[in-house]
UniProtKB/TrEMBL annotation:
Listed name of the protein: Chaperone protein HtpG
Domain Histidine kinase/HSP90-like ATPase: start-end pairs: 31-190
Cell location: Cytoplasm
Region (C): 549-620
InterPro entries, alphabetized: HATPase_C_sf, HATPase_dom, HSP90_C, Hsp90_fam, Hsp90_N, Ribosomal_Su5_D2-typ_SF
Job description of the protein: Molecular chaperone. Has ATPase activity.
Keywords, comma-separated and alphabetical: ATP-binding, Chaperone, Cytoplasm, Nucleotide-binding, Stress response
Length: 620
């Protein structure tokens, strides 16, 4: 041990930790109970890690007794201790785990915590649960000895700019044989957490399903276990109540909302495993963080292995819970996790079960399913692109806003197909309001054809795959040719304006000549009934919405669009009759109007303004 190691050292917190602690120390939250839940959860993780490492090194369990968590309140001198005999931490691990936050999304967490009126619900979502203890403590002292180590270390902080780390005193080292002791020096307004009944209330609410015994050591009595210490997922469904599941969800997921869906079953046969999974009812802030992993924990015979086993596909990454196998080897390495055929079978089976349960929920409890869809529909739709095998099921599961209303299913769409309609039509854009006013809907509306209105960024991607539902292909109104000729118009729209006397070939040629290479083609439109023009993409390649998105991300330039014109419109009819200068102005105006209606700016706004003024003055 070097001189530097043996001397007490003061170190600053990482910038994000200092900012977080400042919020913890100087803010008041309505739910301070969570600090104890977080400390117990950390202790349970440490015990899990010890059990796992002791498989290869049984000697790690030699000293320190059977795994358990102890809670010791003392009114003199107002301290609350949370003690585990788990894996423990060495000096560097104390610095790394308690002095930094190496978690993606921390900045987002801090932003949301600063903005929130009540930030209690945000604690724990980014791995910062330990710092919740500063809501109730003026000072925290952590003494830890890593299993198998001769050295114990003490970390201490008052929640200011930094912390101090030093070798543990002889007395502390003798007391902490293995694991971690966290001593909270409680604030005066947090004295209630020194009362045994209050500790029992919090443990019962949040930590009853922790699989290790939690002992309360009162000052004037015998230690007693205050949790059931049973793996709830191994119990029969008939034994459990909705309240049991809600508590298990909050403990397993570290969440504060209620689960919108619970899936609990045991698979028997070639492979045996227990499954307890939940769908949250609210969206976490890091749902789209690139480094976000799944939150399904893998256990083997009740021994925690990892939460990084990819037990569900990425489009179900919002699902939380536990899968506990009876057959997998306990010494699973990372490589074995990636290549284990049994895990692949479990993943496939559980994915199917989750999708099936979501389908069932959509039929039986549309309100609960609606909460899941509102929070996670964006993510589920990623699967339509990624998971070819389950594409039809995910399409059936999806809910859409259409020209007929909200929360429509494709099953409902197909049941309401118009006479002679053979395709499912959709339009991708930035907002429902803008899509509803898009001229590409005009001919469809005249025939009462329902159109899916897709506004999520992911919609531009999954619709680029070749898709059909119940044998009906999905067709974009912004791409390729559209033929509504066989679908009759509704009674209200049968009296369409007469087509002006104009030569189609001459009109198209004049517009093409004026626009040159600004467009790839000019065509007469079947999409339009009232508007003069619109832009569409060719039948091959990406839809215009996807092209624009990729171009904005510098992932390719958008191709030249096709300009479709409504030959019944007076401006279009006027092109063939106008002189060369007016024909050029009118043709460019048709293009620029179409760009604006698609949410784009004209290539030269100043020229567009001058051209528009010129045409208006000429008409006056």
């Amino acid at each position: 041990m070097t001189t530097t190691d043996t001397a007490a050292q003061s170190q600053p917190f990482q910038a994000e930790v200092a900012e977080l602690l400042n919020l913890m120390v100087h803010s008041v939250y309505s739910e301070t109970d969570i600090f104890l839940r977080e400390l117990i959860s950390n202790a349970s993780d440490a015990l899990d890690k010890l059990r796992y490492e002791s498989i290869a090194k049984p000697e790690l369990m030699a000293d320190g007794g059977e795994p358990k968590i102890r809670i010791v309140p003392k009114k003199e001198p107002d301290t609350l201790s949370v003690i585990d005999n788990g894996l423990g931490m060495d000096r560097q691990e104390l610095i790394d785990n308690l002095g930094t936050i190496a978690k993606s999304g921390t900045k987002s967490f801090l932003t949301k915590l600063t903005e929130a009126k009540d930030g209690a619900g945000l604690i724990g979502q980014f791995g910062v649960g330990f710092y919740a203890a500063f809501m109730v403590a003026d000072r925290i002292v952590v003494t830890s000895r890593r299993a198998g180590s001769a050295e114990a270390w003490t970390w201490s902080s008052s929640g200011g700019a930094g912390f101090e780390i030093a070798p543990a005193s002889e007395e502390d080292a003798a007391r902490v044989v293995r694991g971690t002791e966290i001593v909270l020096h409680m604030k005066k307004d947090a004295a209630k957490y020194l009362e045994p009944y209050e500790i029992e209330r919090v443990v019962g609410a949040y930590s009853d399903n922790i699989q290790f015994p939690i002992e309360l050591v009162p000052e004037d009595g015998e230690p007693r276990q205050i949790n059931s210490a049973s793996a709830l997922w191994q119990r029969s469904k008939s034994e459990l109540t909705p309240e049991d599941y809600a508590q298990a969800y909050k403990q397993i997921a570290g969440a504060f909302d209620e689960p919108a869906m619970t899936l609990h079953y045991r698979a028997e046969g070639r492979y045996s495993y227990a499954v307890l999974l939940f769908a949250p009812s609210t969206k976490p802030f890091d749902l789209f963080e690139p480094a976000r992993k799944g939150h399904v924990k893998l256990y083997v015979r009740r021994v925690f292995i990892t939460n990084d086993a990819d037990l569900l596909p990425s489009y179900l990454r919002f699902i939380r819970g536990v899968i506990d196998s009876e057959d997998l080897p306990l010494n699973l390495s990372r490589e074995m996790l990636q290549n284990n055929p049994q895990l692949a079978q479990i993943r496939k089976a559980v994915t199917g079960k989750v999708i099936g349960e979501l389908e069932s929920l959509g039929d039986k409890d549309p309100e609960a399913f609606g909460r899941i869809w509102d929070a996670f529909g964006l993510v589920i739709k990623e699967g339509i692109w990624e998971d070819y095998e389950r594409r039809e099921k995910l399409l059936a599961l999806s809910r859409f806003t259409t020209t007929k209303g909200e929360n429509r299913t494709l099953k409902q769409y197909v049941e309401d197909l118009k006479e002679n309609q053979t395709e499912i039509y959709y339009l991708v854009g930035d907002s429902i309001e803008r899509l509803k006013s898009n001229p590409k809907l005009e001919s469809a509306a005249a025939r009462g054809i329902e159109v899916l209105l897709l506004t999520d960024p992911v919609d531009a991607f999954w619709t680029s795959a070749p898709l059909d539902f119940q044998g009906k292909p999905l067709k974009s109104l912004s791409q390729g040719d559209v033929d509504f000729g066989m679908i009759p118009t509704t009674e209200e729209t049968k009296d369409e304006p007469e087509k002006p006397e104009t030569d189609e070939a001459l009109t198209i040629a004049a517009i093409k000549d004026a626009l040159g290479d600004k467009v790839s083609d000019v065509r007469a439109s079947q999409r339009l009934t009232a508007s003069a023009s619109c832009l569409v993409a060719g039948g091959l390649g990406p839809d215009r919405a996807l092209e624009r998105m990729l171009a904005q991300q510098n992932r390719g330039a958008a191709s030249k669009p096709i300009l479709e014109v409504n030959l019944r419109h007076p401006i279009v009819a006027a092109v063939a009759k106008a002189n060369a200068a007016d024909a050029a102005d009118l043709s460019l105006l048709l293009l620029e109007q179409a760009q604006i209606l698609d949410g784009e700016l004209p290539e030269d706004p100043a020229a567009f303004s001058a051209r528009l003024n010129r045409l208006v003055l000429r008409a006056l």
